[in-house]
Amino acid sequence: MTFPDAWLVPRWPVSDTVRALFTARTGGVSEGAWGASVAEPAASDAGRGGMNLGLATGDHPGDVERNRGILGGYLPSAPRWLALEHGARVVDAETVGREVVTADAAITAAVGVVCCVTVADCLPVYLADRDGRVVAVAHAGWRGLAAGVLQATVQAMNRRLGPRAAPIVAFLGPCIGPTAFEVGADVLEAMRATLPQAERAFLPLSASKFLADLPALARQALAQVDVDDVHGGLWCTHSDPTRFYSFRRDKVTGRHAALIWREPSV
What we know:
CNF1/YfiH-like putative cysteine hydrolases; three-stranded antiparallel beta sheet; 6 helices; 23% strand
């Protein structure tokens, strides 16, 4: 399967039966603030062709549904869309149907079931055991990290995997980077309650302002549940308007999808 050039396909040491994907802002039909690029407004195609996948963004709902349809053509089944709340609830993706389910992570052991979260600066974290028996994806903004969403997701996977399972591996997708994510002291205090070494991921700018490193915080959270094989974490949504939507940068903007599923064994 060939995806649009700007889309990200994680490369990580898990079974070939695991498939993961992160959409970029190109490849769809959205226009304006939800279009393909804000970097070159004079270009003839600027502001069109956006792959916005978030319904609650102000974009035309018909365009979002068309984008979701385009995305579906690359997948074995329709994504199990979640209503996110920046918490730590984890659901089995195969139980998600037409009714809205509120959660920030989904897991599955079923072949062809597509776990999905949407993001526009928050950190998407892909998870799979090396053998590819169970996969998951989590929406990990700072509130979700403080609430323990990654620990809860790994624990749910371990319950499904059982004893003597292969180690779990993580891949960190694009998010707002550590040079762009300015936060207040309240964020640091919230993180300290869950992550005792959280301060190592904060760069002081003043007595009350810091730059926060979401990938570093995610690594701390994953280490608490013995996930030390962590990849990715190299892309900043805020600093690359050609490729990524960013809520912190633009306020009115689209949403990417982070997706993971299992293919049948050959």
